[in-house]
């Protein structure tokens, strides 16, 4: 899909930390998409630090291409005919306390390279002019810019990739829900934890924890939410299994890369120096968790967006998507941001995580239609549910506009496939699948 007319127009809503930055590099290197705008919000750190990180990314890619012109074609979205907009989104959640993930990403969002590697800092004069060679700088609010872009493009042609808290999407729905529902083509969201522990609290993933009120308005509340058929949610359940082993990065990108040694520019490409500079701290933190690998949360979401353009019937080869039903905890002292899945069931009475009242209603509808024997099936006796009522277990086909349940990615072409795509596109290196041995996820 590299033909310009077939490129997917995308809006990237991001809070650039470590994995967001790799995800943006992948987006810049992907010919299937056209980046319309970056909506930069609070999240991994404050909105101003996140905003600066977009310019740091572009600066690193620009230096890379300047020193190695042969890599220019690797980043088709770097010198776009139409400059992507860069705007600030929300500085905090719709309600509740302001949180960040500086414990992992550092105060500047990029492992504190502002102090350790000042050569990556953006020259103050660059921003004071209000102009940039590759980006269109705007002071308009992020939600207004996103709505304008939806209106400018053909209905249901734009993909919105949410890599941070969902606050900007919620503001879009609050401002013009009709525009969003009628014109948005696809919304790909990295967030939540359904059947696995959280990464910020024992039960909550960071993006959902940072603004659970926005999650409720965007995905849960029937009166405010998005058209769920056009949503793809990638929770920790799927993203945590997608890893970049640091030994692979060291072998193929930067042989000097180490958790206890700051990156130096000598002997490296500018891009490798940039990524090694902020990945050093990430490697040290992950080693503290007993894993010598980077979790590719936001990278997996960008990959999913590339594979599932708006209007795609079914799912891309190798991907599996299923409906999931859950609520979001907004006020719990210990459970804020938790995806509350109804797990009450008897001996295989209901599909995993399905809603008991929803299944009962579906069963009674089947009985009324003469599709099931009413004998033994009453409000208190429905111990066994026919397979067709097991809503949670049936794969979905994105594209039908009216549906209940959030489409959740449950399988991809595999972590190895993502590593191969990412390494080739971002750093221009090949990785043989054979080198990704069966035990590579145990690093």
From TrEMBL:
GO terms for biological process: purine nucleoside catabolic process. Keywords: Glycosidase, Hydrolase. It comes from the Eukaryota. GO terms for cellular component: cytosol. Pfam families: IU_nuc_hydro (PF01156). Belongs to the IUNH family. This is Nucleoside hydrolase. It comes from Multifurca ochricompacta. The lineage of its organism: Eukaryota, Fungi, Dikarya, Basidiomycota, Agaricomycotina.
